[in-house]
C-alpha cells in the first residue's frame, strides 16, 4: 500500500511578494527549495498562519539567495505581505520506505535557521 507522507517543508516563511496578475503559483528561493527537497513545478500545499487559509499551487524557482516567497495569481488573494506561511510537499511512499521529511525552519527574513530531516520543529506560537 502506498501512503502520502510529508516529504519537505519550509516552516514559518514570510510572504515577501504578491502578484495577482500572474499565472497562479508560488515563487520560492532556489536554495530554500533544495534544502526542503521541493522541485520546480511540484505541487505544494500552503497554510497561512495569520489567517488560516489552506490552498495548493505549484512551485516556480526564485533567484538563489533572494529569500523570495511570492504568491502569484489567485493564490496571491489568499495572503498578505508579511504573513507567515508553511509550505509543504508530499510524496508517495510504501510502508517501511524511508520517509523522513526535510524540514527547513526560517527566520523572519527567510534565512534558514534550523534544518531537520526527521522531526517537527519545536516553535513558540
Automatic annotation (TrEMBL):
Keywords: Autocatalytic cleavage, Cytoplasm, Decarboxylase, Lyase, Pantothenate biosynthesis, Pyruvate, Schiff base, Zymogen. Its main location: cytoplasm. It is an enzyme of class 4 (lyase). Binds 1 pyruvoyl group covalently per subunit. GO terms for cellular component: cytosol. Substrate binds at residues 57, 73-75. Pathway: Cofactor biosynthesis; (R)-pantothenate biosynthesis; beta-alanine from L-aspartate: step 1/1. Is synthesized initially as an inactive proenzyme, which is activated by self-cleavage at a specific serine bond to produce a beta-subunit with a hydroxyl group at its C-terminus and an alpha-subunit with a pyruvoyl group at its N-terminus. It catalyses: L-aspartate + H(+) = beta-alanine + CO2. It holds the Pfam family Asp_decarbox. The keyword Transmembrane does not apply. Its EC number is 4.1.1.11. Catalyzes the pyruvoyl-dependent decarboxylation of aspartate to produce beta-alanine. Belongs to the PanD family. This is Aspartate 1-decarboxylase. The gene is panD.
